[in-house]
Specification:
Number of strands: 0
Low-confidence stretches: none
Largest sheet: none
Length: 71
């Protein structure tokens, strides 16, 4: 149910953060990409993004987080 997705997502992230040490677990919040005008291919399509687009930026953000976690 998409109406409860944000709440459920936060609960799952909080559970992981309470279990794993912060140096071994990070949450990459990509919800900001929902506000992009080029976010969705068609109206009502919540699963696909225009390419190049948000998914490419997610990869860059993830790479940055992973590099930051290296000793």
């Amino acid at each position: 149910n998409w109406r409860t997705f944000d709440d459920l997502n936060r609960k799952i992230a909080d559970a992981f953060l309470a279990t794993w040490p912060p140096e071994k677990f990070r949450v990459l919040d990509v919800s900001m990409f929902e506000l992009r005008g080029d976010g969705h291919v068609t109206y009502g399509d919540c699963l696909h993004y225009c390419v190049p687009g948000a998914s490419m930026e997610w990869n860059r953000l993830l790479l940055h987080v992973l590099r930051d976690m290296l000793p």
